[in-house]
Each structure stands twice: as structure tokens, then as C-alpha cells.
Amino acid sequence: MxxxxxxxxNPAAFxxxxxxxxxxxxxETLVAADSLLRGIQTDLQNAQGQRNAVSKGIGGAMGRGxxxxxxxxxxxxxxxxxxxxxxxxxxxxxxxxxxxxxxALPNLPAGDVPDGPDESANVELAxxxxxxxxxxxxxxxxxxxxxxxxxxxxxALLSGARFTFMHGQMAxxxxxxxxxxxxxxxxxxxxxxxxxxxxxxxxxxFGTGQLPKFSxxxxxxxxxxxxxxxxxxxxxxxxxxxxxxxxxxxxxxTALTPCFRSEAGAAGRDTRGLIRQHQFEKVELVxxxxxxxxxxxxxxxxxxxxxILQGLDLPYRKLLLCTGDMGATAHKTYDLEVWxxxxxxxxxxxxxxxxxxxxxxxxxxxxxxxxxxGTRFVHTLNGSGLAVGRTLVAVIENxxxxxxxxxxxxxxxxxxxxxxxxxx
Length: 424
Known about the structure:
Layout: H1 4-9, H2 11-20, H3 27-64, H4 67-103, E1 123-128, H5 141-144, E2 150-151, H6 152-159, E3 165-166, H7 168-188, E4 192-193, E5 199-200, H8 202-207, E6 219-220, E7 226-227, H9 232-236, E8 243-245, E9 251-260, E10 279-289, H10 294-311, E11 316-320, E12 332-340, E13 345-354, H11 358-363, E14 366-368, E15 376-377, E16 379-387, H12 388-398, E17 406-407, E18 421-422
Parallel strand pairs: 4-9, 8-14
Antiparallel strand pairs: 1-11, 2-3, 5-7, 6-7, 9-10, 10-16, 11-12, 12-13, 13-16, 14-15, 17-18
């Protein structure tokens, strides 16, 4: 959500920001809608003043015994009230129209975000780890997994495409990964563990930006609630409609939850294996900060996600996303891509975004700076720390052996009950 006052003050800069995201100019339309709204509000205030003045005159006329004048003024008050009712309806419509236009627009990119139409323009910033050299041809996880308990056939039988059923040692490894991530993010990286609802109302998915534009990416229940596509929705909205004490910031929250996505735009992409599922688990990281602290918090969050990959000794690279590849709510995004030897490619495993005050305005989440009477909007950040299924993919492919077994990373040993390898 954008501040209409900033758009009024600098329409050219706003349109320039939208243009970097491939969006047409909107400032003139928005300013015109705002002018219409403010004009109606002025007319309404004037009508209220007239009504009050005439109403006072009725009492004076009655006191003088001038009933004719009093009746005339009563009729005038009734007419003013009718006009006010029409103005109030017009104000509601004009406010809703402006709100809907603002809500449909993406966040503006930070100045250091590279321009570009798609992922081809992303900028690689760093690499960590050395991909392993194999003395055999490494296979993809979808070829290794079935013999180890990754049952794609049963998942499809129960639920259709893009669902997986895990059992035995594979289910244990999947659980170990989630618990390891959650323990590191809480005990080492300072996030507070949360257990959140998986079903949320319209207001929540609007607050984090999935509604109204991206409803096709979500699953909705018959009673109108939405299954969360990520715990970002429930964690970030936990501060909605609040005025926070500056001393409580930053707030750092994490949760391990299932995530539900329709993958409406993914037809034909990653149809094999776990890379793109309708249901998966993820450890989400969310930070609520003061505006001046959000850039540093962004770097800290990326470091928290990197710590999981480093702890598992999984090679990865860090990217700064271009304007055409960022999510609509993001002001700036870093992606981490893990090396998958079976695919001979780096694939996304974490996306960490600074949303500025874009989500906070939609949620009306504020804080009161120390020594100030007024309030300001907080900044919100979110990231994966990490996606459990994709990390499982990375472990299987990077730790695979020639006989089809998979060695368990040392970091997961405390969670595996003495199991050191998965065997066919």
C-alpha cells in the first residue's frame, strides 16, 4: 500500500518507480481520485457547518415565537441532511475506489535493486562452499527418493499431482530437517518460536499482499477462510492494527508450518519431485522493525537463512533480485540458491525480502518512537529459513552415494536417533 501524500508531493518519482517494475504511470489517476475524495470531504464539512448553523437558528426562532421561520429552517436542515447522506455515500465510494487502486499496485523497488524483466537480470553477489566431485553420475532426488521412502505414487493416488507421501527413514529425515532449522533460528539466531493458525481471514492475506491480486495462488475453504501459503501471513499479521512500543522493536518471529499453494502459474514446471508442491513445510522468518533499522535487519535475516545451509554443508549462492523477479510486496529481495548436483544447477531455497512500510500500511501496524506523540508505520521483513522440502532435495542429491544410499549430515545426527544413512 502506498502513501497518497507522497504520490501527491512527487508524482514523477512514483511513476518512475512503477516503471522500473514494468507498470504503467498511475500518479495522475491516483491524484485525481484523491482530489475527488478530498473535494467531497470538503463539501461534507461545509454541509455539516451549514446544518449546525441552521439548527441553532431554529432554537432562536422558536424562542421568538416565529414558528414560520422555524419551520422554514427545519425544512432547510432536512434538505441539508439529504445532501449530506448523498455526500457520505459518495465519500465511501471515492475512498474505496482510491483504496482499491493503491492496493493493486506493487511496492516500489529500492534504489540499488537492478533493473530487469526476469531472473536473467538477477545479480550474483557471492558463493559459499564447493560442489562435491562425484566418481559416479549423480542422480536427481526424484530418481533416488522412491527407494528411500519418498512415495510419489501414493501422494498422487491420495491427492493428485504435486503431493508426496513419505514414510520410514525419509519421513524421519524430513522431520529432522524442520526441527534442526527451528532450533537454530531460535537458539542461535534469536527468533521467537510461534505456533500459528493455518487458516486465516481475508484481512490477513490482504495485509501481507496476497489479496486481492494473487487469490488464484491460494486455496480457499468453503467458509471463506484461506489456507496460508506461508507462515509470513500469520506471523506478520500478528501485529496488525497495533501501536507498538519502540522499545519492543525489532520483533523477530519464526514458525515451522505447512504451506499450501495452488501453483496456478506453474503448469509444466518442476512436475517431478519435491521442488514445486501444493503442500510443503517451511520455517519462516519475520521481522518487525523501525524504518531506520530495516536494511540492517534484512542483512541479518539473510545471514540466518545462510547459517542453515552452512550448518548442513550445502553449497549455495546469494543473488540480488532484479525489479522484474521480485514479489509484488518486496522493496528489495535476496535469494539463496542451493547447488543440486543431480540437476547440475543452483535452485532457489530461500527468498528474504524487505517490504518497507508496504505491508504495514495494509495492516495499519505502527509504532510510537520514543519522545514523540505521533506514530509511524513499522517496516516488515520476511524470509525462508528454510523451505524444508527443497532442503531435503538438496541433502539427498549432495549426500547421495553410488549404491543409492544417502548419508545423513552431521548436523542432523542428534535428530536421527542413531541413523547415519538412508538405505534403499
